[in-house]
């Protein structure tokens, strides 16, 4: 009998990697938005007025990035659960202590 890697296990690992990528990208976007806001807070009143319209879109981007961050966390957790369940299932099929 040949035992190959469980496709569910690799699907779980793929979900972990995709979730980590999502977290990394969202965190980067949040950090970039924070730096941009700090730079605009030191600008003149005229520039601040002009940038308020842009700031609204940045707030939406910040909210979207925050949601993506939470989704990435859940994706990693789900992938870990799938990989763990697959690993435990394989251990039940094969008695490794015999």
- DSSP summary: helix tally: 2
Distance between the termini: 16 Å
Q: Which overall shape is indicated by the principal axes computed on the Cα atoms?
A: rod-shaped
Q: How many structural domains in the coordinates?
A: 1
What is the strand content? Answer: under 5%
Mean pLDDT: 77
* CA-atom Rg in angstroms: 22 Å
What structural class do you assign from the helix and strand content? mainly alpha
Spans where pLDDT lies below 50 across 5 or more residues:
none
Question: Can you tell me about this structure?
Answer:
It is a single chain. By secondary structure, the protein is mainly α. The protein has one domain. The chain has two helices and no strands. It comes from Pseudomonas reidholzensis. This is Pyrroloquinoline quinone biosynthesis protein PqqE.
In short:
The chain is an all-alpha fold and 98 residues long. The chain has helices spanning 7-41, 45-93. The chain contains two helices and no strands.
């Amino acid at each position: 009998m040949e035992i190959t890697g469980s496709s569910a296990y690799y699907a779980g690992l793929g979900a972990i990697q995709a979730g980590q990528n999502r977290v990394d990208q969202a965190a980067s976007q949040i950090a970039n938005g924070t730096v941009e806001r700090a730079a605009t807070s030191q600008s003149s009143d005229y520039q601040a007025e002009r940038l308020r319209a842009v700031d609204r879109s940045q707030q939406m981007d910040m909210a979207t990035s925050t949601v993506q961050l939470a989704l990435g966390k859940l994706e990693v957790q789900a992938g870990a659960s799938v990989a763990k369940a697959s690993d435990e299932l394989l251990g039940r099929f094969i008695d490794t202590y015999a």
